[in-house]
């Protein structure tokens, strides 16, 4: 995917451009708000990574200007301001996701990949399928092969989110945000416990595991053969 | 400023002067009124006497003519301590009586007048010591005139006595007043000076110093007492601040030191695997540091009341159920039962995110430290959302060892971790954050005894504070218009 990184700190920008290229993406860089707005408006990007505080034009104002022009390119805001109200302001200004600094690249990559595929993704499908695992969003039924799997409501939502982003890495904080609607960073491994319970229900007793742990990043559901 | 300058600037002294002035005015007016009335009474008496005698003399004149009048006048004039009498002919020459001289033109004015005079029988008092009298002149039919008068010395003397009394009393009032003012002023000044000296020592850094408090219980003592309580509070706060900064230094420097040591050791080892392990540990350690910083910042924001932007209406029971649901599997893994008791909606206004995090911190604490003693019958941790009409109580109760009474205040402070919890990972900020969040929402964090165990309660105002928070957010002082508007 094509990304635009609008970040004034040279070192961070270089690191991000290099890391995204290594992950197989194309990343352009703009060093201030005006340049970033011009590039974002002209180029066809899959996602924007916008620093909150930029010279010449504030990050939120860049996104606001783009949205005013009808440009809906997904934007992730990076900010040293990590508080709840800053996140609210960022999302109100038209940002699609918000990541406080310092962040891990794995987290940023996972979020940007999810963001860029949001457009035209599988959001509207009524049934998600991964291998022989099937999830019906209307009847809330989950089956693997011929076997029906009974899930608690929250386990269902966890699996639904994982399957919606099948083949993509989903981090623990993304799960906490999207399944539980909290943005704090739990000090214990609460999410891991939930995932391992879910894994026990959908993978145990089956030959091919579908729910994988991605070391240092999070989880991914995918058909092992694909 | 000189000592006297200081003294006359004291409130006590100035008040004394004002009272003094008022008192002197009062005394002067009282004496003035007294003098004026006395004078009027004496004058009335004199005129009455003169009128009576004049009437009698006129009677004599009418019955016996001028001759009988002069005989009568001569008779009366000879009596000791008598009044003044004078009969004059049409040329103005005296023909009978006891008056040697009068003020010029007195005899030519018919009616009342006041004049100096000299008596015929009183030659010793010639040299300037004049007497005064009130006189009445009556014109007889043939140009002769008769004068009757009475000395006013008595009146003058009395008046003199009163004036002297007034002078003395005013002098005494002034002396006593100024003296009293100086006495009271110096007394107050001495105490204020003692307080000022103490204050200066306190300002110079001696926070243990206290203001002197007398035993009289007067306003100065009460003021000094209150100031001492305030100083106590400030000293406690300063102590707390120092403890916090010491703790911050300790809790941030320890992981930084660990981090540095590991890097050094890895560099020295030179093995690929060693480098990798050191880097992974470095990332883990810095994540912990970032979490600590985030928590510190969030506490600071909550304490300063800045985190008001994300405030909305939300259901406290939903938060309790959500947090229970999030932590239930983790508790079960640790062999604890986590139960929720939040049957009905608890409308709250504020930050669902912050309240959720505060409750999560309490649950994490309960799971970490609320492990009951072996063999205990109760092992449940209960997350509850209850209300008493005004307040909503989001609570987490465990049956662990609990927190002793004297430690309860302390554990809420930043970085304070009880000895028992040192072995568990954690920043020592969980309860501080929960407390700051409760304060931000106009509530408080209560730590209670759960017999046995700890019951941590976020006591929050129900929907009460919504309009004011709404206003604060909008900067709009009028609450009525927007109270119902959803944010």
Characterise this structure.
The complex is a heterodimer of chains A (226) and B (487). Chain A is α/β, with parallel strands linked by helices and 226 residues long. Helices cover 39% and strands 22% of the residues of chain A. Chain A contains 8 helices and 12 strands. Chain B has 487 residues and is α+β, with helices and mostly antiparallel strands. Chain B folds into 3 domains: 155 residues, Beta-Lactamase (2-Layer Sandwich), CATH 3.30.450; 75 residues, Signal transduction histidine kinase, dimerisation/phosphotransfer (DHp) domain (Helix Hairpins, Orthogonal Bundle), CATH 1.10.287.130; 170 residues, Histidine kinase-like ATPase, C-terminal domain (Heat Shock Protein 90), CATH 3.30.565.10. Chain B has a 6-stranded antiparallel sheet with strand order 2-1-6-5-4-3. In chain B, a hairpin with a 4-residue loop joins strand 12 and strand 13. The C terminus of chain B is likely disordered. Classes of the chains: A alpha/beta (226), B alpha+beta (487). The interface between A and B is medium-sized, with 26 and 34 residues.
Blueprint (SSEs and pairs):
The complex is a heterodimer of chains A (226) and B (487).
Chain A: E1 2-6, H1 10-22, E2 26-30, H2 33-42, E3 47-51, H3 59-68, E4 75-79, H4 84-92, E5 97-100, H5 105-116, E6 127-130, E7 133-136, E8 141-144, E9 147-149, H6 153-164, E10 170-171, H7 172-180, H8 190-202, E11 211-214, E12 218-221
Parallel strand pairs in A: 1-2, 1-3, 3-4, 4-5
Antiparallel strand pairs in A: 6-7, 7-8, 8-9, 10-12, 11-12
Helix pairs in contact in A: 2-3, 6-7
Chain B: H1 3-8, H2 11-78, E1 84-88, E2 94-97, E3 99-102, E4 111-119, E5 131-139, E6 145-151, H3 153-203, H4 219-269, H5 272-303, E7 312-315, H6 316-333, E8 337-341, E9 347-350, H7 352-369, E10 380-387, E11 391-397, H8 405-411, H9 430-440, E12 444-449, E13 454-461, H10 466-474
Parallel strand pairs in B: 8-10
Antiparallel strand pairs in B: 1-2, 1-6, 3-4, 4-5, 5-6, 7-9, 10-11, 11-13, 12-13
Helix pairs in contact in B: 2-3, 4-5, 5-9, 6-7, 7-9
């Amino acid at each position: 995917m094509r990304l635009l990184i609008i970040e004034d700190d040279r070192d961070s920008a270089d690191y991000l451009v290099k890391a995204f290229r290594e992950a197989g993406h194309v990343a352009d860089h703009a060093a201030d708000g005006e340049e970033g707005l011009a590039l974002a408006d002209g180029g066809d990007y899959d996602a924007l990574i916008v620093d909150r505080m930029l010279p010449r034009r504030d990050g939120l104002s860049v996104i606001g200007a783009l949205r005013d022009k009808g440009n809906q390119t997904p934007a992730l805001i990076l900010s040293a301001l990590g508080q709840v109200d800053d996140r609210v302001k960022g999302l109100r200004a038209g940002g699609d996701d918000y990541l406080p600094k310092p962040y891990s690249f794995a987290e940023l990559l996972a979020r940007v990949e999810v963001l860029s595929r949001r457009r035209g993704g599988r959001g509207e499908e009524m049934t998600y399928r991964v291998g022989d695992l099937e999830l019906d969003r209307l009847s809330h039924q989950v089956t693997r092969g011929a076997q029906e799997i009974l899930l608690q409501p929250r386990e269902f939502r966890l699996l639904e989110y994982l399957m919606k982003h099948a083949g993509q890495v989903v981090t623990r904080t993304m799960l906490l945000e999207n399944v539980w609607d909290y943005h704090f960073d739990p000090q214990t491994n609460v999410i891991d416990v939930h995932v391992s319970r879910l894994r026990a229900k959908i993978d145990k007793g089956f030959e091919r595991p579908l729910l994988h742990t991605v070391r240092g990043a999070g989880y991914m559901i995918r058909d092992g053969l694909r | 400023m000189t000592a006297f300058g200081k003294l006359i600037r004291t409130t006590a002294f100035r008040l004394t002067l004002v009272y003094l002035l008022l008192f002197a005015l009062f005394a002067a007016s009282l004496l003035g009124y007294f003098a004026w009335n006395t004078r009027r009474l004496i004058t009335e008496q004199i005129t009455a006497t003169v009128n009576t005698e004049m009437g009698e003399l006129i009677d004599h004149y009418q019955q016996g003519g001028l001759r009988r009048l002069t005989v009568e006048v001569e008779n009366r004039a000879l009596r000791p301590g008598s009044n003044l009498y004078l009969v004059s002919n049409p040329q103005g020459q005296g023909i009978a009586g006891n008056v040697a001289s009068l003020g010029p033109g007195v005899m030519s004015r018919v009616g009342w007048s006041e004049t100096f005079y000299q008596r015929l029988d009183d030659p010793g008092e010639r040299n300037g010591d004049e007497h005064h009298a009130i006189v009445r002149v009556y014109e007889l039919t043939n140009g002769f005139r008769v004068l009757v008068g009475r000395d006013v010395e008595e009146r003058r003397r009395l008046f003199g006595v009163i004036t002297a009394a007034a002078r003395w009393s005013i002098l005494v009032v002034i002396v006593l007043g100024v003296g009293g003012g100086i006495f009271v002023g110096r007394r107050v000044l001495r105490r204020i000076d003692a307080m000022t000296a103490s204050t200066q020592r306190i300002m110079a850094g001696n926070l243990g110093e206290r203001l002197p408090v007398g035993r009289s219980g007067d306003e100065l003592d009460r003021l000094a007492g209150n100031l001492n309580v305030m100083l106590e509070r400030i000293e406690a706060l300063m102590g707390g601040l120092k403890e916090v900064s010491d703790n911050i230094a300790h809790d941030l420097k320890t992981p930084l030191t660990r981090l540095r040591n590991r890097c050094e050791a890895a560099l020295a080892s030179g093995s690929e695997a060693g480098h990798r392990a050191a880097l992974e540990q470095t990332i883990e350690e810095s994540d912990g540091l970032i979490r600590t910083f985030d928590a510190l910042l969030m506490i600071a924001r909550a304490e300063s009341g800045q985190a008001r932007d994300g405030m909305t209406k939300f259901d406290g029971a939903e938060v309790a159920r959500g947090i229970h649901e999030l932590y239930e599997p983790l508790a079960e893994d640790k062999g604890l039962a986590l139960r929720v008791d939040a049957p009905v909606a608890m409308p709250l206004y504020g930050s669902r995110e912050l309240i959720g995090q505060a409750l999560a911190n309490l649950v994490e604490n309960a799971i970490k430290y609320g492990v009951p003693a072996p063999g205990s019958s109760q092992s449940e941790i209960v997350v509850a959302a209850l209300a008493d009409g005004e307040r909503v109580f989001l609570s987490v109760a465990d049956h662990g060892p609990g927190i002793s009474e004297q430690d309860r205040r302390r554990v809420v402070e930043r970085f304070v971790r009880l000895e028992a919890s040192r072995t568990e990972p954690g920043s020592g900020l969980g309860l501080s954050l929960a407390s700051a969040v409760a304060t931000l929402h106009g509530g408080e964090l209560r730590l209670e005894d759960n017999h046995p165990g700890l019951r941590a309660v976020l006591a929050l105002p129900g929907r009460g504070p919504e309009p004011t928070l709404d206003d604060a957010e909008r900067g709009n002082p009028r609450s009525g218009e927007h109270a119902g508007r959803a944010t």
